[in-house]
Amino acid sequence: MREIILDGKSMTLEDIMSIGSMPTKIVISKSARKIMADSRDHVESILKNDESVYGINTGFGSLSNVKIDPSQLQQLQRNLILSHACGIGPNMNPVTSLRMLAIRANSLAVGVSGIRPEVVDTMLDLVNSGYAPTIPSVGSLGASGDLAPLAHMAMALIGEGQFMCKRGNEWQEIASKTVFENIGKEPVILSAKEGLSLINGTSQMAAYLAEASEYADRLCIAADAACAMSIEAIAGSHKPFDPRIHDVRSQPGQRVSASRILSHLLDSEINKSHEECQRVQDAYSFRCAPQVHGAAIDVVKSSAEIAISDVNSATDNPLILSDGDGGYDVLSGGNFHGEPLALAADNLAAAIHEICSISERRTNQMLMPSWSGLPAYLAKNSGLESGLMIMQYVSAAAIARIRLLASPASLTNIPVSGGKEDHVSMGSTACQRLDEICSLAASVIANEMLVASAALDLREHKPGRGVEEYHEMVRSLSDPIEGDRSMSEDTNRVAGMILGGMRGS
Question: Measuring CA to CA, which of 62, 63, 159, 259 is 20 to 30 A from 500?
């Protein structure tokens, strides 16, 4: 069992990806619990002194000038949750929902949100028990935080929503009442400030971006492997991957990609057999792969860093902050604005498109006798058989879909809340579509691997050690091509292996 201790500043991508995929136990650190309790004490002192402070005893958004009677503060928080829980569309993947709940808990553990530690304890009890709040995926503008999705999360906490729980291999819906009975707790009764603390943050966007950054890293690893397989499939040159070329260009991702590709090509009998080949240069899709893949690798690294920075941040409003003299100030700002995540997600979408675009070009080259020296479409009986012709079509169609999805979401702005919230990031939209992009990208790279494997089956000599290893991985999921057959399931299986994290030598 993996133990994760939340302190609001040290949650890792590995921590996030472990939630929902392996047994975990998440608890609040002692130091974070103390900071949270002190912050809550200040909220209570504001209430005791009957001060008027936004987010604690006022209305919200454009209604911030309305002071609420102390006797109605619990009702205010409940109303806030119920009125904001109006999301639409398909429900979030339960695993992503679990991760979102844990990320929100970590953000609150920073200790400047004024929420009671006991509320966060309940959130973690639910995560640890595998109960994922049922959350409609559409509704966040990525500016006042992920208001609607987080309100659905909070609605489950107060006993008004639904949960999903995994039974065997299936997720099943379960009523909140049953869930709280199972964990031995009562639904949360929210006090002043706590409803706003739960829903005013970037936790949905951060969950989506964190997941996508991990999947994109796996795609980059697979793209380098696929490229090496394709190089061997066409008996291409290894010279473009010489480290001396990449050492004189200061792009770190490029060096990573070139090194990985070259490592897969070591001890290649195919390369040795073509030492006297008269072909001087291969197409850009082979020769420039490190430059393209490497740029994507750098974007993936940056997007992961931005996601984890937000995971370990206080992103609600207002914040209960130390004044440096032993007291506290309640400061209103805009940490809920999702622009960093939106721009990172838009950039990541473009990067994934590029590794797919160049992958499809390599697939096309392998199917052309003029480049591969092999039968057209790798069919053993060309004309009678179409071979793998349509796999390139499918990759092209997937890329067209990726290109549509990769249109920058951050360029859209629709003011809300009576014009008070006049610039929004659309960060949730930007981050959420990455799930489909990654799935399509895995299929494009899978098709390249399948085509390369079919080409390698026709070669007399052995490929490089790494290529041989990946070839065997593919062949464990897809039988050699003996004649025309449907390849859809083969693509799905290999794509699943890619997203699952294939790591060869």
Answer: 259
Asked whether the whole model's pTM tops 0.70, one would answer yes
| Mean pLDDT across 10-17 | 98
pLDDT (tens digit per residue) in 248-306: 999 999 999 999 999 999 999 998 876 666 666 899 999 999 999 999 999 999 999 99
Q: Is 186 a catalytic residue?
A: no
- CATH superfamily for 2-201 is Fumarase/aspartase (N-terminal domain) (1.10.275.10)
Per-residue b/e over 182-214, b at no fewer than 16 CB within 10 Å?
A: eeeeebbebbbbbbbbbbbbbbbbbbbbbbbbb
Cα 253 to chain centroid distance, Å, stands at 20
Active site residue 54: yes
> Is residue 276 annotated as part of the catalytic site, yes or no?
no
Confidence of residue 2 (pLDDT cuts 50, 70, 90): very high
Catalytic residue selected from 194, 214, 385, 421: 421
SS3 category, 478? coil
Query: Using only C-alpha atoms, what is the Rg of the chain?
Result: 26
Q: Are 85 and 5 in contact (CB under 8 A)?
A: no
**CATH code of the region 210-313+328-501:** 1.20.200.10
Residue ranges per domain, the chain? Answer: 2-201, 210-313+328-501
Task: Give catalytic status of residue 42 as yes or no.
Answer: no
413 catalytic? Reply is no
- CB within 8 A of 489, min separation 6: which ones? none
Q: Which of 208, 336, 377, 470 is catalytic?
A: 336
Averaged pLDDT, 341-346: 98
- The pLDDT, as a whole number, for residue 181 is 95
